[in-house]
Amino acid sequence: MKPLLILHRALAWGRQHYENVLIALALLLLLASLVKPQMMLKQEVHNFLLLADVSQSMNAQDVKLNNKEVSRMAYTQQLMKRVVETSKCGTYISVGVYAAENVALLLTPLEVCANYDEIMDTISQLEWRMAWSGNSRISFGVKAAESVLDYLDAPARMLFFTDGDEAPKANAINKLDLTDVRVGSRTVFVGVGGKEAVGIPRYNANNKWVGFWSMDSKAEEGGGGGNYADASKDDPDPEVASAEWDRYLSMLDEEYLIALAEEIKAQYIEGTDSKEFLDFVQKQKPAAKIVTIYSLTWIYYSLAFLCVLGIYLPNLRAGKGRLKLS
Known about the structure:
This protein has helices spanning about 1-15, 20-35, 70-85, 115-125, 140-150, 215-220, 255-265, 275-280, 295-325, and strands spanning about 40-45, 45-55, 60-65, 70, 90-100, 100-110, 155-160, 185-190, 200, 200-205, 210, 250, 265-270, 290-295. The chain is α/β, with parallel strands linked by helices.
């Protein structure tokens, strides 16, 4: 009977001093929250590498955005931003560019919600003058991207935004053997561009439009116009097409991108600013399982709030009772 008596007295004391007990408990919880309690959780996460083709064919204006014709580059930026906007917190995003035969990483993986502005600003800055050389060899770019994916801390899924317009075109002689590529299952080619051939605008080093690429200059310089790493070396008035018939024409080369995807066991999808495209991206299998630190501070704050609320609960009940009696 003695334990029951002790329990009875403890409950009686608690009823008499419940306010002090709740205040003390709330203070203890708030003090404990200062330690920043955490727990480790292993969870699946999306980790996207958004890779943009910055060769000059991406300046061709043959896609529509808000009923206005824009360049493939501008459309790529829109698609990338929409991927970022629709990604849940906890998703990691990195951004890179492709030109010639190589890939350059602009952003290492960043958590999308904590670094939203930085990611969006980087995408907004993408342009053709980032290209370090004029030619465009997508198959070589895939090999280079494989090294970049290996460099990242955690496995990532690469979304390769390109029009598939190679210069020089791949043929039996210059075609690269991709049988040893290991990242095909983590690669998605996103085709950007129209289905009808159009001229490629040519700009000088000051990003001023001077005309269209000609058939001759495109063939001679591999479709890009020299090395733009040092803009001062670019001719302010480069050679352009003399007439419409002389323009080098470009279009989305879906056939080539699909064949490339099949060769390395990757995926291909046409990039459209649509729910279907975004759903396709977000339904991709998470790239990795990583251990993340999960903060428990909010639990301590919530319990402390409930303790404070508990102090006033009897008064609220009593007030309701008086209202009913009246």
